[in-house]
Amino acid sequence: MNKLLVLCLVTLVCSVSALLNADGKELVFLQFVFRNGISAPRELYPNDPNHPDRWEEGLGELTIQGRKQLYALGKELRSRYNNFITASPREVTMQVATQQKNMRSGLSMLASLYAPDDFWEFVPGLPWQPVPVFYIPEDEDKVLGSFQNCPLVLERMKKLVGQFGNETVLEMYEQQMKFWSLNSGWPINDWNDVVKLHRILSVEALFYIIYWTTLSKKSKESFQTQE
Question: Which pTM value belongs to this model?
């Protein structure tokens, strides 16, 4: 169950001492917590008509669209706090989770949030400067790591599955689960299986990748035979 709610988060902490805007307001501490951008599915289902090469960034990796998302977020934050923060990389600390998509998400956001000014520009015309990020090994990370070692989270997840993934609910969707099993090539037997398949299909839908949405004649005949 713990796999259902594993969030990939990036934390940015801007700790700025005595930075004043034009109105004399002081920014003492600023913290952002956000997810990674749109990423490719971590895996494909057995009957997926799309080849893994369709995802040029690699399965499970941050897509170009995801990088644009985080770059746009950095620009928005820069616009919002422009009167408080500077271009100095010394005033920002970023922590990311251990996966590459999290690292790339953080770097994409910093590229616009901390684009260099004239002082920090080290290559003429290059609107980028290196800003360090750090991570903690997942088994030691109590902030961005997996929730598998948190008893409270596991208890809440068990309650959630019991509420929405119990036998009564599963019986209501028995025919749909048979349909998903037949077309995906995966046995869809419980809530975890449904979520696993949905994650793939939802990402493919964002990129207008064709996948099965209706039964083919052959699949329909096979499905009716199973009934």
Answer: 0.79
